[in-house]
Design the sequence.
């Protein structure tokens, strides 16, 4: 009985000790819920990459483990979620919402393990929650947060640098099987870990057994991952990504109208000859390469700032969006200036062990992000980890800039220990917009409303999927489309015929692939491989002569062309 009472007492003391943190985490969950409520009414299904990762996950036992360079761990995550949700459309939104819900709370806990007080942690958690970061796709970037921060949360409880970098290296080992470019970060942290391990062995000879066990475990795990899954840097995915983005920017600069997948012709034939890697590209045409890098550098600076801000451009008026973002930018600049203004106090209060770790982690993550941004493109989801650690460093400096003030405040206001976080959390919750409706105090009372209501908003991919489902086709379907994976959400009877498979005239292509359904959207209609094919043009305008029926896809600008036997059956 006494033992049970002691356990109850200890539990109560723990809850009391972390009551403010528990409250703030609950508020962050409430903020995420309010921000994303009815998200599926405004967020379309993401085809291509995100759908590909989902498909790899749900078919993992049929297709095997995905290639190491194609985010196998992210696909495994999708498989795990599919155990709870079998509908692929619902699975897409489950993943989206789950990563939005979990990331800000994990970020808050991570800040708290750095001894950043709850007030600053909740404010930065709130910034994270409603920033551009939350809604970026593909969701790979937010999944990286789910991997890295828990490891660092545990690592922050140790003063032993060797153990800290051991855990950080473990996290990066997992991350490279989601984003291969972070192999650079992994090698930096692994090298640092090995240096510290050897140093600790030389200084503490009695630590030899533990050091051997720890390093053997890590090296064995590395070998296991590489042997079972493969080398994340193998293959040509990086060069393909460079080719895609260079081709896209080149065509944009030169006003060339061509499908996105024509990148290879642009890169290998028009500009860089037979180049197959970045070094050959530089030698073949250094001028065009440097122009590409310059454009990406300017975009990188702009994106690195704007990713931290709310972006409601498509949801509210331009005036509202611009005003909010300018106000945020001013606040961010003030917050960055404060540590310089109070540098004397900062330098006295700061824990240099913590700062050194923060800077090493940040720099190790920054290097591959910066290189990828310059060489490929500074896509927003590439910048998520960089942005999180930038926010962390700002929060850490802010915490230590006012250290004496915090001590006095804590002594004066202990009586408000719970009242204060409730008021602050409630205020942030009121400040949070709902993406589907606007800034609303209740469901029917909105201070600022969306320009378009969810009922009239066009979600072309989702509407197309729902329309095809409504036809209740029971035969096998070979579906030609250029949008990137409707079949994944339609079921196993639907087989994707990719537009880039076309190497002949359209009639022969149609017969060879036994195509009995065509989704005609701008992506397919603008593809020169089709638009310049007279047979395809005739097919689109006179489908009945090909034994096809043309149907308008409701609430979209697309059309569905169906073989007559599908309709009859």
Sequence:
């Amino acid at each position: 009985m006494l033992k049970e009472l002691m356990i109850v007492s200890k539990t109560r003391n723990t809850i009391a000790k972390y009551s403010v943190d528990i409250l703030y985490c609950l508020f962050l969950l409430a903020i995420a819920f309010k921000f994303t409520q009815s998200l599926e009414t405004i967020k379309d299904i993401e085809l291509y990459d995100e759908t590909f990762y989902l498909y790899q996950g749900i078919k993992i036992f049929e297709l095997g483990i995905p290639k190491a360079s194609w985010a196998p761990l992210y696909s495994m995550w999708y498989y795990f979620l599919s155990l709870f949700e079998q509908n692929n459309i619902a699975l897409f939104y489950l993943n989206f919402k789950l990563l939005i819900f979990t990331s800000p709370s994990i970020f808050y806990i991570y800040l708290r393990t750095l001894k950043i007080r709850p007030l600053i942690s909740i404010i930065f958690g709130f910034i994270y929650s409603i920033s551009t970061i939350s809604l970026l796709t593909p969701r790979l970037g937010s999944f990286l947060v789910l991997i890295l921060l828990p490891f660092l949360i545990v690592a922050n409880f140790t003063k032993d640098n060797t153990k800290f970098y051991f855990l950080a290296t473990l996290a990066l080992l997992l991350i490279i099987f989601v984003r291969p470019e972070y192999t650079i970060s992994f090698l930096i942290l692994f090298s640092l870990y090995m240096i510290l391990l050897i140093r600790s062995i030389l200084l503490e000879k009695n630590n030899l057994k533990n050091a051997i066990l720890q390093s053997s475990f890590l090296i064995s795990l590395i070998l296991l991952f590489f042997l079972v899954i493969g080398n994340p840097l193998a293959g040509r995915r990086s060069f393909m990504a460079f080719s895609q983005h260079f081709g896209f920017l080149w065509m944009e600069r030169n006003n060339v109208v061509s499908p996105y997948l024509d990148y290879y012709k642009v890169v290998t034939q028009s500009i860089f000859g037979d180049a197959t890697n970045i070094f050959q590209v530089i030698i073949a045409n250094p001028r065009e390469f440097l122009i590409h890098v310059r454009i990406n550098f300017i975009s990188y600076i702009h994106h690195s700032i704007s990713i931290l801000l709310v972006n409601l451009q498509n949801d509210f008026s331009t005036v509202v969006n611009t005003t909010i973002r300018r106000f945020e930018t001013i606040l961010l600049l003030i917050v960055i200036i404060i540590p310089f203004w109070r540098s004397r106090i900062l330098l006295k209060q700061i824990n240099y062990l913590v700062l050194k770790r923060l800077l090493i982690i940040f720099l190790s993550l920054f290097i591959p992000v910066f290189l990828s941004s310059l060489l490929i493109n500074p896509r927003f989801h590439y910048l998520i980890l960089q942005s999180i650690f930038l926010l962390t460093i700002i929060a850490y400096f802010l915490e230590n800039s006012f250290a004496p003030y915090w001590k006095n405040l804590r002594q004066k206001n202990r009586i408000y220990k719970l009242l204060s976080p409730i008021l602050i959390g409630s205020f942030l919750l009121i400040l949070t917009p709902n993406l589907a409706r606007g800034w609303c105090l209740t469901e029917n009372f909105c201070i600022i409303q969306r320009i378009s209501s969810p009922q009239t908003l066009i979600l072309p991919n989702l509407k197309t999927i729902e329309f095809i489902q409504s036809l209740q086709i029971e035969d096998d379907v070979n579906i030609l489309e250029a949008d990137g994976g409707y079949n994944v959400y339609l079921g196993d009877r639907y087989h994707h015929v990719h537009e880039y498979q076309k190497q002949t005239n359209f009639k022969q292509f149609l017969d060879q692939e036994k195509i009995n359904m065509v989704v005609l959207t701008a992506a397919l209609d603008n593809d020169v491989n089709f638009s310049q094919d007279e047979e395809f043009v005739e097919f689109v305008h006179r489908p009945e002569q090909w034994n096809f029926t043309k149907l308008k896809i409701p609430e979209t600008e697309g059309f569905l062309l169906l073989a007559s036997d599908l309709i009859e059956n």
